[in-house]
Fold this sequence. Notes:
By secondary structure, chain A is α+β, with helices and mostly antiparallel strands. Chain A has helices at residues 9-18, 50-57, 72-79, 88-94, 97-106, 120-130, 156-164, 220-237, 270-273, 278-286, 312-315, and strands spanning 2-5, 25-28, 41-43, 62-65, 114-117, 134-138, 148-151, 169-173, 179-187, 193-195, 199-204, 207-213, 241-250, 253-260, 299-306, 321-325, 335-343.
Amino acid sequence: MIGIIGGGQLGRMLALAGYPLGLTFRILDPKPNAPASYLADHVAGSYDDHDALSRFARDLTIITYEFENIPIESVRLLAQTCPVYPPPDALATAQDRLLEKQFFQKLGIPTSTFAPINHRADLDTALARFGLPAVLKTRRMGYDGKGQITLRTPGDIPHAWERLGQHPLILESLVPFERELSVLAVRGHDRTTRFYPLIENTHRDGILHRSQAPAPHLSPDLQQEAETYAHRVLDALNYVGVLAIELFQFGTTLLANEMAPRVHNSGHWTIEGAETSQFANHLRAITGLPLGSTAPLGTAEMLNIIGTLPDPAEVLSRPDAHLHLYGKPPRPGRKLGHITYCTRSTSTP
Amino acid sequence: MIGIIGGGQLGRMLALAGYPLGLTFRILDPKPNAPASYLADHVAGSYDDHDALSRFARDLTIITYEFENIPIESVRLLAQTCPVYPPPDALATAQDRLLEKQFFQKLGIPTSTFAPINHRADLDTALARFGLPAVLKTRRMGYDGKGQITLRTPGDIPHAWERLGQHPLILESLVPFERELSVLAVRGHDRTTRFYPLIENTHRDGILHRSQAPAPHLSPDLQQEAETYAHRVLDALNYVGVLAIELFQFGTTLLANEMAPRVHNSGHWTIEGAETSQFANHLRAITGLPLGSTAPLGTAEMLNIIGTLPDPAEVLSRPDAHLHLYGKPPRPGRKLGHITYCTRSTSTP
């Protein structure tokens, strides 16, 4: 049985992809109606409850995670008795925006200019160095645009400091990027590595809105550059599983923004749009099975369903539409599902 | 919540296809470890236990079935309080080989020559009429080649009669067909109907071994002929859901062998090989959602895994291989899973 820390939509889609491989699943998630709980064993405990952790871990063969805001101590504790993939170090790095940027820097992967901010004086020094606009972010617990404030004028600074100043922070220069991309890699235990084509992502209110794959106007050079950077991350972390790195494109330059050591929202199109989905490939990787082809099957566009549920009949009136609902009650700003539209190359042989 | 009578691999694949549509499932299956029980509510009762039937039916919005050998009385009882699709009449017809053949005949759909056999004298009369070789079959409860014996010489008759003579029987002339095909149709509540391309099937020991889709050398005329027959069946039964009809090809002639009012083993390739799988389309049909495209994505070959489990790593060493295991313990002659190999038309746009 595979253990998944977190029982959200990513865990749900992992389980859906894993049953055909003959796998069974147990999730750890404090929420009683977590999206994956309908189709997996469920330990409903908090991520730092040692009793829940030990009930979760019982008889598991492999543990993975689908959610990053879990105490790294819990993950390291679990790793003492059961292999955890991707490696806990990858999670520890991704959980802290400062460590993450320093990690990219150490590997020679370009990033925006950044500085750690522990005191108000650090902020002034950093702003004097790289000027406005800049983004002030909490080092930890940020996702979907939470925990970050863009500073455009000096007048934005006091409010931002008031809201975030009690946390360890990072200041990043605001890159005038042309577009956001992501690279999705999967690596097996034997270090075999496959890449999906780069994905172009559009955000709204800090939340992923739309992914297109392969990214329009994708040059082989750009794909190659992204793969080179991803390879460095995979090597440095002794990585096993799916890894996503979010990138800013800026002419022919790519800057690494952040990484996610897990299946990723920008890879949901792979369910129908690639020969093997990111979910199946993540599971193949961590269980030691050969990886599946990452070739795209035409082009795909994925739209997130956020906040309110659409009429499924309307969505599916396009015969190339694939609807994925996560079984969550609607709430503003919440990811409730996604729709993938596929355009195939000639469909009959 | 959708109720599925039967919790075998077809129920399991229905549930896997249905969660993304926001559906939840309850199965009725006497077996404690039925393949679908891992991912659905499970009422573990027998198909004729009224108490189990009523626990199963509680709060269901729609009932479907994935297994044909269920007492039709139970299905009709359930249909009094909850809509059942495909219509119970379709199941009643498919459960009895004689009714089924008479039904095809009434609709002008060609079949092999057949005769009801209730007494030994009927058998002699029928054999005198259409000669050997012929197949003696039980009218009911036959599947995967069970309950049928081929008569090639007069010496085969006494043994066959001894084994089957206590059941109501049907004798069918043995058609010297060139190949076996199946047509897979799906019809919605609004009578919208879509067809997958004809599938070529190869059996071993009476069990489906291999399906290829689209069937090699498929002419538009043959596809059209099969669709015409399927349309008659769908119309006559006021059908909703997926319907499979097994056909014998004989030059440019198609003879209907039997029908299955459910998702069908010969349609498993649609999971990766068609724009929308038979499982998703069956659920879309019965829940009143628009049907998805049935267009094939290249060519697909499906092989059943029967009796013994292969090494998954070996199966998946072909990067175009998709493995589907059903979570069943191995047993000779048992369908344990399937593998689909996909050959895509040009894979990048």
